[in-house]
## 1
Amino acid sequence: MIYFDHAATTPMHPDVLQTMTPYMLEQFGNPSSVHAFGRSGRAAIDAARRTLASELNAKPNEIIFTAGGTESDNYAILGAAMKYQTQGRHVITTRFEHHAVLHAFEELEKRGFDVTYLEVPESGVVTIDALAAALRPDTILVSVMFGNNEVGTLQPIKEMGQLLNKQNILFHTDAVQVFGKLSLDVEECQIDLLSASSHKINGPKGVGMLYVRTGVQLEAQSYGGEQERKRRAGTENVAGIVGFAKAVQLIVAERDILKAQSEDLRHLLLERLDTASISYEQNGHKGLPHIVNLYFPRVEIEPFLIMLDMRGIAVSSGSACTAGSIEPSHVLSAMYGENDRTRQSVRISFGRGNDKEQVELLAQGLIDVVKSFQNK
C-alpha cells in the first residue's frame, strides 16, 4: 500500500515511539504523585510544555495538554463563549471549518448564542473585509482555521488577529493542519487561542494541545482533579505528551526539507496529469504544500476510491471525520455551492515516506481510473 492521506493521520515516527516507550514501561508514575515515579512524569510534561511553547513563541504555562484537536477546539470555543457571555452573545466562524469547530458553534446556537457563519469564496480564502463587516458591538469570539484540512488554503490569520485585537475580541484558530509544518508565532498573529494535534505530525494519537493566552479565561468543560492548572481535569497522558514533544522537535528540524519535498511531489503529480490530458481542476488556491484537492468531472468518487485502493493507493474524498459514508464535502459546498464538484473531488496529502517513485505510481493510477470514467 502507498499512503497519500497524511492530512487524516500520519504514521508514528520511530524516534517518537522510542522516546515514549520508557514512560509506558519504567517511568509510568502518575505525574500528580509526589514520589520519584510521579516526579519523573511531571518533569517530562514540563519539558514537553516548554518545547511546544517555544514553537509558538508562547509561555509554557499557556499550553494545556488535551486528548486531541477536537477537545482543544471544543474547549476553546465553548469555554470562551460561556465565560464571556455577559459581555455579548455574538460569535463568528466560517462555513468550511472542521466539524470539531462547526459542531461546537451549533451547540452554542442551542444555548442561545447568535452565530454568524462567514461565506467562503471559491478561492477558499475568507477576506478581512468580510470578517470586519460581520463584527458587532456584542461580538466576543471569532474562530477561523489557519489551514483548511480538505483543500489546504491558508487564511490571513495575522491580519485577522490584528483586527480583532484592536477591538478586544477573542480570536481562536484551529491550527491542526499547520502546527509544526509552518512556523507559527502567536504574538505576531495576535492569537488568543490555538488548537493543535499530535497525530498530524507523526506523533501519537490521543494527545493534543490548546494554547491559551495569559489573561484569557475559559469555563471548565471537564470536572475532576486539578491537573493542567485546574483547567483540564484528568491524569495526563505522559507517554503521549512526551511523544508529541518529540514529534515537534523532529518536524521543526526537517520543516524546510519536508515542505520542499511536498512541493516537488505536488508539481510532479500535476505535471503527469497534464501530460496525460486528464480533465481536472484544483479546488481552492494553493496553500499548504502537503495537500492537493482535485476535481475530476464525471468521476463517481466512491468506486473511484475503491479502484485506487485495489491498486494499493490510499487517498480520500475529504475529512476523515466523515468516514463511513461518502457525503458531499461541506468544505467544497461552502466554496462552490451544491453541485457535482462536491461529490467528484479527491484529496491527496503528502508526508514522510512519500517519494517520486510513489507519486509516479499514484499519477498512473489516477490517469487509468479517471479515464475509465471520463471515456465512457
## 2
Amino acid sequence: MKENYQKTYQRITAPFRRHPWAVSLLRVANKFVVWVMYVAYCVILIWVGRNDYSVLWPFILIPGIGFLMLSFVRQRINAPRPYEKFAIDPLIFRNKTGDSLPSRHVFSATVIAMCGLKLSLFWGIILLILTIISAITRVIGGVHFPRDVIAGFICGFICGLFLFLV
C-alpha cells in the first residue's frame, strides 16, 4: 500500500510539478472554492432570511449540527493525513496532523451546495461542481486521501438531504 500510494501520488502530481504555474493554480483554486463557498452560504442565508424569515432555521441548524457531529466523529477517528503517513511532498501545505477522515472542507462545501440546491437547481449544480473541484484539489494537494473526500461528500450529501425533509 505504501509504495502504491506514493507512486500514485507522484504520478498524479507530476504534471503539476513540471509546471510551477500549475501548482500555483491548484493552490489558488483550493482557496478560491473555500471562499466562494463561504460567500455562497452567507448569500443563501441572507436570501432565505429576506424572503421568508420563518424558514431560515433549517439552513442554519442542519449544516451547523452536521458540522459539529462530523467534527466529533473525525476527531475520534483521528486518521492521519497523506503527508503524515507517506513520504510525499504535498502541493498544498498544512501543519495540521490527524483529523483527515472525513474531509470537513468537502463536507461543508457539499452541505452548502445542498442549501443552494434547495433554493435553485442551477446554483445548486454550480456549487456541487465547485465541491467536486474542492475534493479534487484536496487530494492532488496531498492533504486528504480520496476516501476522506468521498466520505466528506457522502456525509454532507446525507446531511443536506435533511433540508428537503423539513
